[in-house]
Specification:
elongated; single chain; 68% strand; 1 helix; mainly beta; eight-stranded antiparallel beta barrel; disordered N terminus; disordered C terminus
C-alpha cells in the first residue's frame, strides 16, 4: 500500500513538473485580438492586431521576451473623414506564471513597444480633400499592462492564452520632412479580447 501511495505521489509531481515553466525554457507565441467602441459624441473606433513573441525563462516562472506587433485602427469621424492607422512595433515583454492547476496558469504581462506607422485620412466627400494632409508618418511609444491573462496547457508543450482587457498608455508624433507636426498622449482602459497560442521548448539537457 505504501509503495502504491508513493508511486501516485511521484507521478503527480512528475506531471506538475512537465507543465512548470522552468529556468532555461524558451517559448514562441502568436496572439491576435480586436476592440470596438461606439459611444455617443465619440468617433467609432475599430482596432485589430496581431503579435509574435519569443520568450526565455531566466528564472522559474518569470519570462522575459521580445515581441513584434502589427495594429490596424479605423476611426470614423462624422462629416469629416475615416482615419486609417497602420502601426508596426517591437519591444520587450515581461510576464509571470502563477500555477492555478497543473494545466492552468495566471499570467499577468507588461509590454513595451517602439512604434512606427502611417495614418491615412480618407475624406467622406470631395470638399474635405482641400484641407490638410491626407496622410502622415507616425512614430511613438506604447506601454501595455495585461492584468488578467490566463494560459491553458492542453499538452506539455502547447499553451492557449486568453485575456479580456488591457491598460495602455501611448504617445505618438506626426512626422513630415523630419519635422514634428503634432503629438499626443492616449490612455486606454477597456475591452480588448485576445487569444493566442504558445509553443514551449525545453532547455537543452546537460551532458553531465
Amino acid at each position: 500500500m505504501k509503495k502504491i501511495l508513493m508511486t501516485i505521489v511521484m507521478t503527480a509531481m512528475s506531471v506538475t513538473a512537465l507543465f512548470a515553466q522552468q529556468s532555461g525554457d524558451r517559448s514562441l507565441g502568436f496572439t491576435g485580438g480586436f476592440s470596438f467602441s461606439d459611444e455617443e459624441n465619440v468617433p467609432n473606433t475599430f482596432v485589430a492586431g496581431i503579435e509574435g513573441q519569443l520568450g526565455f525563462f531566466f528564472v522559474n516562472n518569470l519570462k522575459i521576451g521580445i515581441d513584434a506587433i502589427y495594429d490596424f485602427e479605423r476611426q470614423n469621424v462624422d462629416n469629416d473623414a475615416n482615419y486609417l492607422t497602420h502601426l508596426f512595433g517591437f519591444g520587450p515583454t515581461v510576464s509571470y506564471y502563477v500555477r492555478i492547476t497543473d494545466k492552468l496558469y495566471y499570467t499577468p504581462e507588461i509590454i513595451g513597444n517602439i512604434m512606427r506607422g502611417r495614418l491615412v485620412r480618407k475624406p467622406t466627400n470631395s470638399y474635405h480633400y482641400y484641407y490638410g494632409e491626407n496622410s502622415q508618418t507616425l512614430k511613438g511609444r506604447r506601454v501595455a499592462v495585461v492584468p488578467f491573462q490566463i494560459e491553458f496547457h492542453p499538452t506539455e508543450r502547447i499553451g492557449i492564452t486568453a485575456s479580456v482587457f488591457a491598460l495602455t498608455a501611448e504617445y505618438y508624433e506626426g512626422i513630415e520632412d523630419d519635422t514634428v507636426r503634432k503629438g499626443g498622449y492616449r490612455i486606454n482602459f477597456g475591452l480588448n479580447p485576445t487569444v493566442g497560442v504558445v509553443f514551449y521548448l525545453s532547455r537543452e539537457k546537460s551532458s553531465l
